[in-house]
Amino acid sequence: MASFDWMDDSSFRDEITERVSSTASSAGMERYQTAIVDRLMLLLADRKQVRKLEESRKVGREQRTKSDALRSVNKLIESASSYAREEKRTTVTREDFEKAYQANFCMVWPFC
Fold this sequence. Notes:
This protein has four helices and two strands; from the N terminus they run H-E-H-H-E-H. It is mainly alpha-helical.
């Protein structure tokens, strides 16, 4: 059975911050609003216990991991960056993130 201790680890915020920064940069963005990281952490906290329980109940199927969560961060930031590019901006905003979150809802474990 997989351990979900990483969800409680304070260094996970640092990993999310690094992932948001690098993904935004790779998407051609110069900046991102730090409120995006705060929002991701809030979404994780709101759903953490449910996600842990769901994953621990999986029998015979592969459990999702921290890597899956970080891939979800990539997906969200890539999508948010595309909204910024459409408006010819180089900063990813919280509003861009919210649009991306709504468009990708429940395709971004554990944040949905």
